[in-house]
Amino acid sequence: MKIRVVATSMVVGLAWVMVNYKPVQASTITFEVDLDVPGYMPQDELEISDQFASTFGVTFGLDTDGDGFTDPGAFPILEQTGTYPGDQATFVTLVGSDIKTDTAKPGFEEQLGQFFLKSLDFRNNKALNLIINYSDPVAGASGEIWDIDGSPLNPHLHDEWWKIEALGQDYASGLDANNVVDTIISPRGIPPANPNTLDGLPWLWSFDRDVADIHAIRISSIGQAPAGFAFNNFSPFLPATTDIPEPSFVLGLLTLGILGVNSRSKNQS
Ligand SMILES: [Ca+2]
Ligand SMILES: [Ca+2]
Ligand SMILES: [Ca+2]
Predict the structure, then answer these.
(1) Ligand 3 mean position, distance from CA 25 (Å)
(2) Does the domain at residues 27-241 carry the CATH identifier 2.60.120?
(3) In terms of DSSP bridges, do strands 92-95 and 214-221 run parallel, antiparallel, or are they unpaired?
(4) Which residues have CB under 8 Å from 135's CB, separation 6+?
(5) Tens of pLDDT along 34-58?
(6) Whose atoms come closest to the Cα of 95: which ligand?
(7) How close is the Cα of 205 to the center of ligand 2, in Å?
(8) How many helices (H) and strands (E) does the chain have?
(9) DSSP per-residue codes, 147-183
(10) Where are the domains of the chain?
(11) Which tens digits make up the pLDDT trace of 174-220?
């Protein structure tokens, strides 16, 4: 009897695993060369709009008039890391006593890669918002904002501080620009000389909701002064929070299930 219960639970468990098993896919927009994203070839100053729509279900835009919604023809752009002729740098990093542009702190170069998303207009337009719209709502997302720091001379002269909002159904349908379902506030930038600074470093934000009610994400500056913006490694949909079983675990369940069924047969004969 006990063996039958065990065997039945194994079969039910296995059925549940098979129904719920989804392979973990590469699901991060790094803004690097990605052969899995058809038609996307990164280059410095390239506008980013719908290049990731077919693969990731997201489009990028800017709100330039402060009404909370994207405006036609307004898009964020790519920035190539490092310094080169004609460079329109986004951020500066103190590496030892050297000041470098668009450069990660030592050890973080690979994480930043060759490209990230920027909007120079964040420097000039306090009403500007970066907006990511989804074709289908998601329950989670994450991304990195780099180089949240402040001026060593006057922290308020270069006051980097960001708000990330997850927006709901009424936002997506255009009914309510303030239909915010979740909010994350970044740390406030502190000078590069401070050991706790995010100078040249990533800061990771992450939404993790119980239901798929995120229809868009809006990022805006809440500091006292305009700030440079560097965005990277965006995961538009996080894997489900319930653990996804490893293939070896599924195999183990199969084996146990077969053993259980065998034992039951023997027990009954
Ligand atoms: Ca707008
Ligand atoms: Ca910096
Ligand atoms: Ca990158």
Answers:
(1) 18
(2) yes
(3) unpaired
(4) 53, 57, 58, 59
(5) 988 988 999 999 999 999 999 999 9
(6) 2
(7) 19
(8) 6, 12
(9) --B--SS-TTTT---EEEEEE-HHHHTTS-TT-EEEE
(10) 1-21+245-269, 27-241
(11) 999 999 999 999 999 988 888 899 999 999 999 999 999 999 999 99
